[in-house]
Amino acid sequence: QVQLVESGGGLVQPGGSLRLSCSASGFTVSNHGMSWYRQVPGKERELVALISDILQIIKYADSVKGRFTISRDNAKNAVYLQMNALKPEDTAVYYCNVPSLGTWGRGTQVTVSS
Hints:
The chain is an all-beta fold. Helices cover 0% and strands 50% of the residues. Strands 2, 4, 5, 6, 9, 10 and 11 form a seven-stranded mixed beta sheet that branches. The chain has a four-stranded antiparallel beta sheet with strand order 1-3-8-7, with no helix packed on it. It is globular. The model has no long low-confidence stretch (mean pLDDT 95).
């Protein structure tokens, strides 16, 4: 069974950092492109970052470039999103996604507030 489980969200002050984790089961992350999305109530889900499979091409939304870093640990079968210099507008539910399998995790809430 293909499954994604996100963790690492929480409440952080502006300028702080969080590291989100996405643990995968039922497939091998190194064989698939992986992505992180985020969504706030009333808005469409937004692509934050993606890492391709073989060539590991990485892309970021303009709003997070220079602050967020996506990475993959093949040994742990997991994907991460390091988020630095967080802003209140980064507040959202963050989702892990495997585009080729159409699989989503349940999401983890990130709240940036003083």
